[in-house]
Design goal:
By secondary structure, the chain is α+β, with helices and mostly antiparallel strands. Helices cover 30% and strands 16% of the residues. It contains two helices and two strands; from the N terminus they run αββα. It has a two-stranded antiparallel sheet with strand order 1-2. It is globular, with a radius of gyration of 11 Å. The protein starts with a helix and ends in a 13-residue tail after the last helix.
Length: 44
Amino acid sequence: MRELEGRFPKRVHLSQRCAAWPNREIHRWLADPVNYRAADTEAA
């Protein structure tokens, strides 16, 4: 799955059955889907 590989933006869960993706990350992916790498946004 591209999301797990970091080749597609990570989803943000809004509720148990609803998810969304950050607008900025979707636009980055649309601009260059072949070379896209998800930003590491996890806080330590």
